[in-house]
Amino acid sequence: MRLFLLLLLLFPAQPGQLSAGEQPDLRLDAEEKQQGEFFIAIVTGLDKPPRLWFDGTLYKMFLQPDGSFRALLPVGVMQTPGRYAVLAVNERWQEKIPVQVHSGNYPVQNVWLDKKTSGLRATIEEKQRVKAALKTQTDTRLWAGTFLMPAEGRKSSPFGVKRSYNGAPVSSYHKGIDIAAPQGTVIKSPAGGKVILCGYEADAFKVHGNTVLIDHGHGVTSIYLHMHEIDVSPGDMVHKGDRIGTIGSTGISTGPHLHWGVYLYGTSVDPELFVQRAY
């Protein structure tokens, strides 16, 4: 909040840089969201994207076909419920909308690992490569419509549940959904995109296991963990429904399953939101 107030002082409201005679305008799809969801922010009436702030983080806005600028602002699962604000600002204009973040009321899940698996730790290379790829922000939008579920099977663990390993205190939360299915079950790309990372258990990916990460553009990425076979390579363009590999049990895994996660600007959100509706 202090950051928002400072920006308001630095950039007093003045007539904005207009586009096609419009007055600048910031709109949100809603003023209340739960942890794990996201706000859709749209700015019209400007020739260039403004700076967009939420919870102390600056987000890039992307040009849309109608000339507006849009960003999908993630609400983290661990974000403290309460009052916040979304602020759009440039050198001559500003607008702020108060918003409310509610608890997702995620339950605690107890996960039991054997001694060999519980002793595994992510390598530095594994963590750095995945973290960097998840923050990819490509100007070109590569998906259209709703996402597919990437594999057929039983949803064995939902998004957002807090994790306790071997009876220890809660130390993390589930950043995707798990789909349990026999080894070899086909995994499909849920939407159009570009493969930007392939990692292998035999080559430093000790926790994630065999991994694929897809950039869908406009700050949206998706990740696929614990795979058996990987049928794509970095740089490949994939379409909705294309095969990218098969389900396995590599890395830290208690049995054959796919962990599927969707990220906005590097923050995990509920992937099924993209299955239920087109954004």
Automatic annotation (TrEMBL):
SUPFAM superfamilies, per the entry: Duplicated hybrid motif (SSF51261)
Endpoints of the signal sequence: 1-20
Classification via Pfam families: Peptidase_M23 (PF01551)
Protein name, as recorded: M23 family metallopeptidase
InterPro entries on file: Cell_wall_metabolism_enzyme, Dup_hybrid_motif, M23ase_b-sheet_dom
A molecular-function term among this protein's GO annotations: metalloendopeptidase activity
Boundaries of every M23ase beta-sheet core domain copy: 173-271
Keywords: Signal
Cited CDD domains: M23_peptidase
